Amino acid sequence: VHYATGKNSTVLRVQMGLIDRGADVSWLSQYTFERDILFPPLAAIEILKDSVEGSMLVLDGRFTLNMFSLTLEQAMARASKVVREIGSNLLLDLRAACAWAAHDAQMAQRTRLKEALERGPLSQPD
After folding, report:
1. For a disulfide at 49, which of 24, 60, 82, 93, Cβ 3.0-4.6 Å?
2. What is the DSSP string of 6-35?
3. Contact 41, 69 (CB under 8 A)
4. pLDDT tens digits, the chain, 126 residues: what are they?
């Protein structure tokens, strides 16, 4: 922690378990004395304890990984499916509305024809 000796520094000490272990990419690091670990998206740090050592805030915690998060492809496929289903439902609603409108128009025509026959010149026999 020699590089965290500046004014008001913060150090994270994080435990890793067998399940929530990240990928060790230390071999890619330009700092050979450090151990670099990559964690998946939606990883969170649960702070278990905090303490102050001189001017340094030390946070002890552990990683919590969301093991049920979807891959990007899965999330895109799910969103695409939702959009297709919404479109399909809108089409069904539109067809039903058109059928009701056609039915209503037909009923209105029948009513007008019936009224015309009842009041028209053919409705009163001589």
Report:
1. 60
2. STTEEEEEEE--STT--EE-GGG-S-TTS-
3. yes
4. 566 666 788 888 888 877 777 888 989 988 888 888 888 777 888 999 999 988 888 999 988 877 777 778 888 999 999 999 999 999 999 999 999 899 888 888 888 888 887 887 766 665
C-beta neighbour count of 105 within 10 angstroms:
10
125 found inside a domain: no
Identify whether residues 45 and 82 lie together within a single domain. no
102 and 84 share one domain: yes
DSSP state of 68: T
60 plus 89 within the same structural domain: no
Determine if the pTM surpasses 0.70: no
